[in-house]
Structures are given as C-alpha cells and as structure tokens.
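The passage that follows is intended for readers who have already worked through the single-chain material. We present the inputs for a multi-component assembly, then the predicted structure in tokenized form, and finally a short commentary. You are encouraged to pause after the input and sketch how you expect the pieces to fit together before reading on.
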Amino acid sequence: MKDTPAQSSPIITLENVEKYYGDYHALRGISAEIGQGEFFSLLGPSGCGKTTLLRTIAGFEALSSGRLTIDGRDMAGVPANKRPTNMVFQSYAIFPHLSVAENVGFGLRRAPLSKAEKARAVGEALEMVGLAGYGARAAHALSGGQRQRVALARALILKPKVLLLDEPLSALDKKLREQMQLELRRLQRQVGITFILVTHDQEEALIMSDRIAVMFEGQIAQLDAPQMLYRRPVTRQVGEFIGVMNFLPARATMTDQDHIEVEASGLGRAVIGPDQVPGGFHPGQTASVGIRPETMSILFAGETTDRRVATGIVEDRAYYGDMTYYEVRLEGVERPMTISMKNLVGRPVLDRGAEARVAWDAGSLVLFA
Amino acid sequence: MKTLRVYAILYLCFLYAPIALLPIFAFNDGTIIAFPLRGFTLEWFRELAEIPALHEAVGNSLMIAVFSSLLATVLGICAARAGTRFEFPGKKGILGLIMLPLVLPEIIVAVSLLVVLLQLGLSLGAWSVILGHVLICMPFSIAILNASFQSLDVALEEAAIDLGETRLSSFRLITLPLVMPGIISSLLIAFTISLDEFIIAFFLTGTEPTLPVYLWGQLRFPQKIPVVMALGTLLVVASVILLTLAEYFRRRGAARTGQADSGGFL
Ligand SMILES: Nc1ncnc2c1ncn2[C@@H]1O[C@H](COP(=O)(O)OP(=O)(O)O)[C@@H](O)[C@H]1O
Ligand SMILES: [Mg+2]
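Having made your guess, compare it with the prediction:
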C-alpha cells in the first residue's frame, strides 16, 4: 500500500535522503513530502534517526546524499541561520543569562524593527503561549513547563514556515505532558504553520498528528494518518510499536482479486479484503494475522452474539478500574493474547483459569506476509 | 577520630605558621628575626618604596604575569572548547600532554626550556619567562575552563544560530557571557601563579629579574631581611585576594548555569 499523501501542497520534500556519521548509516533513503500547515510526527524507538532527520531539516547536519527542499528552495548549502525553520530543542536551550523577554526576543535582534515594535512582538508571543507578564523574569528560575513555553514563543516569534520540535514533552511529568499535547495542537491550528514533532511516544503521536512517519533504523516504515497507522500497520513491527497487537500464525490464499482466505490458529477460517493486507499480499508459507485487544470481547455466561466466537482460558488479568486486560490462551495457540474489556455495569470480571468465549470479527484482522 | 583531628591541626600549623611569621616580623622594630619582638614599625614598608631595583622587578613581574595569564587563558579557551565540543583522533593524548606540566617538577620544565632556548641561540628575557609561565599556567586554566564549557548545553549555541545568528556571534552572545566567570577565574589564577613563580623565572630571566628572583637575591644581606618580610607580606596578601576573587567567579559561573558545585582548586 502507498503512503498517505499530504492533504496540502508540500512545504518540505525529502528525496532519498542519506546520512552517514563516519561508517554509521543513520538515515537510509528517506523520502517524504510534508504538507503546508500539517502537524507531522516522526515516531520511532530511540536511536532510529528521528533527531538526525530533524537536524538535517534544520541545517545542523549536512546530507550525505539526496535532496531537501523547503518551500520550493533546495537547501543544499543553506546554513541553519538562513533557513525558514525554527527549532524547539529537547533541552529547550533557554539562554540562562537572559530574561524571559530577552530570550523570546532574541531572534528579532537583526530584524529592522523599532524597540517598541520588538517589545510588542515579544508581548504577543508570550501571550500566545500563556506567559503574559512573565517577560521580566530570569530564565533560569522557570519551571519545566514554563521553559518549554518560552522555547516555543522564542521559536515562533520569527514566524518560521516550519517549526521543528525535538521531543518537547519528554521532560515533563504525565499530567503536564497531556495538557501540553492539547495546547501544542491548539497552538499549531492557531498559527497555521507546519509543525514537525519528534517523539518516541506512540500515544503522543496519535493524539497530536495529522500524519505520522514511523521510523526504524534510519528508514520510514510507514507514513500515514493516525487511524490508518493504528488499524492498518504495514508490518508486524509497526503494529507492535503502535499500541498493542496480538499476532497469530496463519496461512493465507488469495481466492480472487478482492478476497483473501485466511486460516488463523485459534480463530479459524475467515475471508478478508485486500485493504486488510496493507503491506501487500505475498503468497508464502509463513504469514501471521494481527488483531487489536479492543476489537475482541469476552462473552459472559449465556450471552449470545452473531460475531465469530473462539474459545480459550483466562491465563491472567489486570484490573485497571475502567478497563480489564485479559491474557487469554485460545485453543491450539501457544502464546496468550491480550483482550481489553470496558468494565460496564453488571459485567463480571473473569478470574484466572475461567473459560472464556472470545467474540471477534474478520474485519479487524490484519494480514502480514 | 580525635588523634586524626589533632594531627590535622598540627599539620595545618606546620604548613602555615611560617607564613604567619611573615607579617609579625614585617612590623617588628628590629633587624634581627628573633623573639622577643621589639615594637611596632612601618619602617620596612616605607623602605620598600625607596628601592628602584625593587620597583623594576615589580614592573617586570606584573608585565610577565599579565601576558602569561592572557596567553594561558586564550589558549585554554581554545583547548577547552575543542575538548568539550569536538571529537578528533588523539584527543585524550593531546589533552593529557597539555596537563603534563601539572605533575612535572618545575625545575625540569625550567632546565629543559633553558637548554632548548640556548641551543636555538635565543637570548633570554621577559619573553622566555612568559613562555615558561604559560606552560605551567595552562593546566590550571584548562581545568577551570573545561568545567565552564562542559556545563554548557551544546544546544545553546545551536539555538542562537537557529534564531539567525552566525557561529561567531552566537559564541559572543551566548557562550562567552556564560563562561566569563571561568575566564576571569582562569586569568586571576594564572596571574597569581606567574607572579609568585620562582624557579622558571630564576632560570629563564635575563638581566631583568622578576620580584621573587629579586627577593631571593636580597636574602644574602641580613640587614635587608625585615624589608623582605614586608615585601613577602604584601605578596601573600595580594595572592590571597586574587585567589579568593578567582574562586568567587568560579562559583558564580557554576551558579549561573545552574549546575551543582563540583569543587575547584580552592
Ligand atoms: N554526531 C553523531 N556522530 C555519530 N553518531 C551519531 C551522531 N548523532 C547521532 N548519531 C547516531 O545516529 C543514530 C540516530 O541518532 P538520533 O537521530 O539521535 O536518534 P533518535 O533521535 O531517533 O533517538 C544513533 O545511533 C546515534 O548514536
Ligand atoms: Mg532524539
């Protein structure tokens, strides 16, 4: 399946971008288009090259080969201080010897504006990030969340075409992080410029992004909208990295153009459509199907359904208050699978060792070659 | 524990008592350095003001100390920045080599420099003393400046560049102010070391002695000893003031970049 294209005209194009650090191949042929006004995330495990890619866009690292254009201009030979991008650093890089206002106004030093105009711009930028009136404070006395806001205001005051954010929320505690996720999204809609966010937190990427590029080992494995990424991962690796996915060994044969017959251990026979094979169908001996925990449910005693039903034993369960996560081993399957259930009123929580009837649908299966 | 404390106190007394004797005899109204004291006088300090050779030596020393500390600090900035920012082959070895004079006996440094300079047919003078002093001040400068540079987030300069500054202007606007306390501390310590240094100055000075060399020469004349004591007192006071200032700036630098104080030389 092809990557989802940007919904708007591209502001950044990457063509076969390669980056070597000495012998180390950090970026291996990255190609992508990032749209105007898009909230775009680079998601992947630590060390996969997200920061490297962001820094090549910012101009702090030179490409080893390939092409990068921003706003139609080839960026080869354009230094970082001449690019229409600004960056929010992972450490925030707040200048500790300057005040909040001096930090935010730093980028205006060379702008042909009067003192009053600069002060007004700084005031507006501070207001935008919810720090109105903080201008005179010393930067080193701020809290983590405030530093992040200062870094945002400082980067946005130059009205860049693209704002680059390197794991901006990873240093914040959970509550503040969740609040800032929504705020960042609101801010991006308000200023309307392209945001490129680097994160290793799949939930964060899903919540905030228009599109996400999932990276492994210097390559983009999949570039898609959050829902597609979650529902139709192209490889097991992507499916595993984003949320929880159960995998079952399977055999598959293509019966005709629009139908693929799958025989999955524990679940049985099912017919699926080609859209459920996002990585493309390759006939072969070893295949597997993936299924998400919340697409299945455990039927309580006597409950009937017109969905497909498989049977198994509850090996373990974890009670989370609103949810219960079951580890259920289906008949004829080695490894237990995770099933999540909402704890609705009147629905009993099954104990270990209980027999479980699992309802599922052929439409939730994803086939991997 | 108790014996250890007594030992520590005795040790400190032994170490510093001679220095305490300096001011005592500097103000003693008598030419013989012995108890009992004879009375209070400022005579010896007054005499200091009337010895032209001494004034020349002070001038030489100050000039040498100023140049040595400036050179050692500038070179130290380069080395510290290179050492904390860049990876290059042989980095550890090179930095180790620069730190070597710290453990090398000064007399070895002095004699080998003397031999080399004479072999090259160069005549000795203030410049050769400066050369030697830069060599022995460098390790101190680098150690201080390394700490300053290491505590700096590399992203700070990048952030300034990202906001439109050039490499040079971001160094000037961001890095320099943040390491300035370290620079001042390095200048003061190098200045103090150069001002007090004797062995290298003794070997490498030409016809213009530095203050410690002049002082040493005066020790041959017993009647001059109270004057030497007065001079020594002034030197000790100056050194203490300079080193205290240096430590003050080092700590302020640490506080400014928000790092925990990891201890300095003092
Ligand atoms: N300046 C550098 N020199 C050598 N290797 C580097 C450099 N920067 C990053 N790398 C390597 O490139 C890989 C990708 O790093 P990075 O882009 O920072 O990963 P991520 O941000 O996804 O965690 C890592 O293995 C890292 O060790
Ligand atoms: Mg990173």
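Commentary: Chain B has one domain: 60-256. The CA atoms of residues 22 and 229 of chain B lie 5 Å apart. How closely did your sketch match?
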